[in-house]
Amino acid sequence: MVSAARMALSRVDKLLAAYVVFVTFVIVARGGVGEATAWLLGAHALFGCLLLLFTRLAPSARIGSVVHDLYPLLLLLAFYTEIGFFSASAGADAVLRRDLVVQGWEQAIFGMQVSYEWIRRAPSVFWSGILHLAYALYFPIVAAGPILLVARGERDRAHRVLLSIMLAYVTCYVVFILWPVGGPNYAFAHPTGAVRDVWSARMVYGMLGPGSAFGAAFPSSHVAATVAAVGTLWRERRRLALVLLLPAVLLVVGTVYCQMHYAIDAVTGMAVGVAAVAVPSLRFLRRTRPLP
Question: Where along the chain do its domains lie?
Answer without folding.
Answer: 3-285
